[in-house]
Amino acid sequence: MLKQTILIVDDEPSISQTLEYALQLDSFNTLSCEFGKQALDILQKQSIDFIVLDVGLPDINGFELCKKIRQFSNIPILFLTARNDEFDRILGLEIGADDYVCKPFSPREVSTRIKVILKRLQSNLPTVQTTPRLKSNLQIDLSKASVIYYDQVLALTKFEYQLLTLMHQRPDQVFSRTQLMDAIWPNSASLERSVVTHITSLRAKLKNNYAQSNTIKTHRGLGYSVNSKNN
User: Fold this and answer.
1) H or E stretch covering 7
2) CA separation for the pair 191, 182 (Å, rounded)
3) Which residues contact 115 (CB under 8 A, 6 or more apart)?
4) Are strands 216-219 and 223-226 parallel, antiparallel or unpaired?
5) 92 and 79 Cβ atoms separated by less than 8 Å
6) Rounded to whole angstroms, how far apart are CA atoms 125 and 165?
7) Cβ pair 164, 157 in contact under 8 A
8) For the chain, the helix, strand and coil percentages under 3-state DSSP, each to the nearest 5
9) 77 contacts 53 by C-beta, under 8 angstroms
10) Does the N terminus or the C terminus of the chain have fewer Cβ atoms within 10 A?
């Protein structure tokens, strides 16, 4: 079995070296760099399975780097932050990070979180290749991780794609925020606000393709569903 490769982006050698040692003990390959630009270059040239990203980099804020990465990749990202501020934690998750760890931290905890996230991502989506249950203008091809709505491809983030796919598999079923949190962000410190943010963004992208879209229905006090009758 091929070893998975973790990219550590942190300008403190003591942190990078400690993490590399812990991850290598858990049978990961590791790469490290100090600057955001280096990380972008590495991602364009090499196959990386996971990124451990420090928020405070010398050349670019880690949040901004995450946004840049999300423009071309859904690779899982775990933030390292020296601040235990709720706003920063929520911001990191809302722009596409999978988890975060506050400094000081245990390298073993980071390694465990990485393994949990990778395992979840491998098993999170259904194994079928397409989702043909709805005869509508919404088509999802799981083999290509693509969504076509009214003959146009939707550019979705990883979490938007996972939310839409989950609800599309069970049309008209109402999913509570808690159910969506457990399915998309299990064992995470993310808040229910993340569900609202991603649903709002997803609905806006659907309406951008078709202004009268009511694919995602809000059931006040209950949750959300994908409408099987009028998409």
Assistant:
1) strand 5-9
2) 11
3) 26
4) antiparallel
5) yes
6) 8
7) no
8) 40, 20, 40
9) yes
10) N
CB 115 within 8 A of CB 26: yes
* 95: nearest Cα among 81, 74, 109: 74
C-alpha torsion angle, residues 79, 82, 87, 89 (rounded to 10): 30
Q: Please state the pTM of the whole predicted model.
A: 0.58
Look up residue 39 and give its DSSP letter.
H
Q: What strand order describes the sheet that includes 146-149?
A: 138-141, 146-149, 152-153
SS3 state at 156:
coil
Supply the mean pLDDT for the chain.
82
- Separation CA 169–CA 151 (nearest Å): 20
Angstrom distance (rounded) from CA 174 to CA 112 = 33
- Torsions phi, psi of 6, nearest 5? -110, 130
Mean pLDDT of 208-226: 86
Residues 6+ apart with CB under 8 A from 65: 9, 36, 39, 40, 53, 57
The pLDDT of residue 35 is above 90: yes
Residue with tokens 């457990």: 182
Count of C-beta atoms within a 10 Å radius of residue 211:
7
The two tokens of residue 151 are: 């003959």
Q: Residue written as tokens 């990203």?
A: 53
Q: For 57-94, write each residue's pLDDT tens digit.
A: 999 989 999 988 888 777 889 999 876 666 666 777 77
